[in-house]
Design a protein that fits this description.
Layout (H helix, E strand, L loop, with lengths): L1 E7 L3 H14 L3 E4 L11 E3 L5 E3 L6 E3 L2 H8 L4 E3 L4 E5 L2 E5 L3 H8 L5 H11 L9 H9 L1 H16 L29 E5 L3 H8 L5 E4 L4 H4 L4 E7 L3 H4 L9 E11 L9 E3 L8 E4 H5 L6 E9 L4 E4 L3 H16 L3 E3 L1 H4 L6 H17 L2
Parallel strand pairs: 1-2, 1-11, 2-10, 7-13, 11-17
Antiparallel strand pairs: 3-4, 5-9, 6-9, 7-8, 12-15, 12-16, 13-14, 14-15
The chain binds flavin-adenine dinucleotide and uridine-5'-diphosphate.
The site of uridine-5'-diphosphate has 13 residues, from helix 6.
């Protein structure tokens, strides 16, 4: 088999670059995918009760990058959707991220913006240099908020204390001095009208793109002649673990269907302090599907299974830097995505970096 471009992984990174190569260069591309489907972690499907579920956890598209929004809008229409999350603490459901309403509901107060600023001023811990995820919360909101909303959730999610995690993990969550209870602040937000898988199918609808599923690339790569390899799988596996294994956090997804119209008031409820799962997602609240049944999903973090998150502790970020030196020396290999770049990317930045790689490393060649 001979292809100019070989792509490992049919996640959003692999599909974006395949789409660009086929549509703009009119070249043939082969994608090799280990799983039985395309889409990687954004894959969604209808369950036996006819409910559209996101098989690898809740995914909401959100971005400030107009280029990315316009690019993906070629393949889907969007259901406008504003994501809201509640956190179950002290027998109350309070808004996440922290805003005035969170503090008022949690502590039975009636603060306005100035009141909240004074309250936080009193609570927050003076930290000279913010290094860890624990520092982020202590410096922004103090110890009680940390203990109630972040400490145990983070320990469950990552299997370690926020003390050991890079500050970038919790910095994803804003702290607000207003009544904004939306999870994301980005200009463009939505869910693909027919789902993520349908959007992904459209991206690779081309006779120039061939996809081989259910195959680890190492099984067949020796039979393929190619000029450029685009690799989106785990980077330690690519280099046969020569500098040791990198850690990836995994999730076990357990879904349950109920014979009722609605399960909870918002799409996602976080459970920082109870249970072994982190959160419950009710898919109909995301997709706006109508049915007299509803499906929910619980996420149980662990270390076995499909890699979901690179593990941002110093040990593994340092180890990744060793691989990075080798990656930088390659000249016919492009590394892309969460697993290969060992980076906690959202979908929009995944697409953005694939579009940039196409422009700068493929088209300009
Ligand atoms: P992946 O989707 O992991 O794709 C990599 C592909 O490579 C996989 O299909 C894998 O099977 C394949 N592969 C790996 N090894 C091999 C091999 N040896 N041979 C062949 N194929 C291989 N982002 C948002 O913007 N909004 C959200 O709300 C959001 N929610 C999320 C919730 C969860 C629970 C998780 C885990 C992620 C979430 N994300 C969200 C992030 C989003 O899933 C990622 O940004 C995106 O899916 C990453 O795409 P990717 O192509 O880099 O990786
Ligand atoms: N987090 C937390 N409590 C929450 C929500 C998030 O402690 O109620 C922390 C946790 O460490 C998590 C990080 O903030 O990993 C980032 O949250 P986000 O919702 O962005 O996580 P993701 O959607 O990637 O799972």
């Amino acid at each position: 088999m001979k292809y100019k471009y070989l792509i490992v992984g049919a996640g959003l990174s692999g599909l974006t670059i395949a789409n660009k190569i086929a549509s703009e260069l009119n070249e043939e591309v082969l994608i090799i995918e280990k799983r039985s489907h395309i889409g990687g972690n954004v894959y969604d499907s209808y369950n036996k009760d006819g409910i559209l579920i996101q098989n690898y956890g809740p995914h909401i598209f959100h971005t400030n990058e107009k280029e990315v929004y316009d690019y993906l809008s070629q393949f889907t229409e969007w259901i406008p959707y504003e994501h809201k999350v509640l956190s179950s603490v002290d027998n109350k459901l309070v808004p996440m991220p922290i805003c005035i309403d969170t503090i008022n509901e949690l502590y039975n107060l009636n603060l306005d913006e100035e009141g909240m600023r004074n309250w936080i001023e009193n609570e927050k811990v003076d930290i000279k240099e913010i290094k860890t995820s624990e520092d982020v919360v202590l410096a922004n909101a103090g110890e009680d908020i940390y203990n109630k909303l972040f400490k145990n959730y983070t320990e469950k999610q990552w299997g370690t204390s926020a003390k050991n995690l890079d500050s970038s993990v919790i910095s994803r969550i804003p702290f607000r001095f207003n009544h904004d209870t939306m999870y994301f602040e980005d200009t463009y937000q939505g869910i693909p009208k027919k789902g993520f898988t349908a959007m992904c199918d459209e991206m690779v609808k081309s006779d120039k793109i061939k996809i081989v599923l259910n195959t680890d690339y190492k099984e067949i790569i020796d039979e393929i002649e190619y000029e450029t390899l685009i690799y989106t799988g785990p980077i330690d596996y690519f280099y046969d673990y020569k500098y040791g294994e990198l850690l990836y956090r995994t999730l076990r997804f357990v879904s349950e269907t109920y014979n009722k119209e609605s399960y909870q008031s918002v799409a996602v409820v976080n459970y920082p302090n109870d249970y072994n799962f982190t959160r419950i997602t009710e898919f109909k609240k995301l997709t706006q599907q109508k049915s007299d049944k509803t499906t929910i999903m619980k996420e149980y973090p662990g270390f076995n299974g499909e890699p979901c998150y690179p593990y941002p502790t110093k040990e593994y970020l340092d180890k990744f830097q060793e691989y990075k030196k080798d990656m930088d020396k390659e000249n016919n290999i492009i590394f892309l995505g969460r697993l290969a770049e060992y980076k906690y990317y959202n979908m929009d930045l995944i697409v953005k970096s694939a579009l940039d790689a196409f422009e700068n490393k493929i088209k300009s060649d």
